[in-house]
Amino acid sequence: MLHVKSFAFNPFSENTYVVFNDHQNAFVIDPGNFSDAETGMLENFITENELKVQHILLTHAHIDHVLGLQKIYDQYNVPVLMHELDKEILDRNPMSARQFGFFFQPFEGEIKYLKENETVKLDEDELKILHVPGHSPGSVAYYSEAGKLMISGDVLFEGSIGRTDLYKGNHEQLIESIQTKLFVLDEETKVYNGHGNPTTIRFEKNYNPFFK
């Protein structure tokens, strides 16, 4: 059984997740920890629960979702899993940081690329990769059919959708991604997104104004 712990980090109030199972194996998803205090909070949760981090997963590589990537990679020394189409976004982050007035060092570490419909496993628990471009070219959602939960990044929010005015965003593509990849899932699926409160597929299908 999968469990989800969320943290709201950095000036962008980005949701960082630790997904773990009953065997205490874990993924860190979208490490946005920015300050030393935030990094300590994340690492303390992992230590106190005796979790063993297996991989770092990225839903996408916008800077607010990777501010703590190097720190967490250096701490746990496990591969980073992401979609190849967002590697350019990751590489652009030092420039993005300068636009916000701070320094961001280029990421140095092992990256493995994910493809549509592959799965990543924590023992008997698995997350299916759904490629959902539009917010960014390589945006993915991590979906547990058995657990009826999904980590969606900045694709689908409570009553909203991800921005498409950023580099290589595409509004029509995002709408299509949500309708064809997410709205076909079990309506009880709980959606843990990149900012704000969780929601469900049922709620968004019925009430999200972008689909009326």
Give a brief rundown of this model.
The protein is of the alpha/beta class.
Q: How does this model look, in words?
A:
This protein is of the alpha/beta class and 212 residues long. The protein has one domain: Ribonuclease Z/Hydroxyacylglutathione hydrolase-like (Metallo-beta-lactamase, Chain A, 4-Layer Sandwich), CATH 3.60.15.10. The chain contains 6 helices and 14 strands. The strands form 3 sheets. Strands 1-2-3-4-5-6 form a 6-stranded mixed β-sheet, with helices on one face. Strands 7-8-9-10-13-14 form a 6-stranded mixed β-sheet. Strand 9 and strand 10 (149-153) form a beta hairpin.
Strand and helix layout:
Blueprint: E1 3-9, E2 14-20, E3 25-29, H1 36-48, E4 52-57, H2 69-76, E5 80-83, H3 87-91, H4 93-100, E6 111-114, E7 119-122, E8 125-131, E9 140-144, E10 149-153, E11 156-157, E12 160-161, H5 171-182, E13 190-193, E14 199-200, H6 201-207
Pick out its properties.
single chain, 212 residues, alpha/beta, Metallo-beta-lactamase, Chain A, six-stranded mixed β-sheet, 14 strands, 25% helix, 30% strand, globular
* Alpha-carbon Rg, integer: 16 Å
Cα shape? globular
Secondary structure: helix percent: 25-40%
Structural class call reads alpha/beta
What is the overall pLDDT average? 97
Q: Care to count the β-strands?
A: 14
Overall CATH class:
Alpha Beta
CATH superfamily: Ribonuclease Z/Hydroxyacylglutathione hydrolase-like
Q: How do the SSEs run, as a string of H and E?
A: EEEHEHEHHEEEEEEEHEEH
Largest beta-sheet characterization: 6 strands, mixed
List low-confidence stretches. Answer: none
Write out the strand line-up for the largest beta sheet, numbering strands in chain order.
Answer: 1-2-3-4-5-6
CATH fold call: Metallo-beta-lactamase, Chain A
Specify the number of helices. Answer: 6
Q: What is the CATH architecture descriptor?
A: 4-Layer Sandwich
Measured distance between first and last alpha carbons: 35 Å
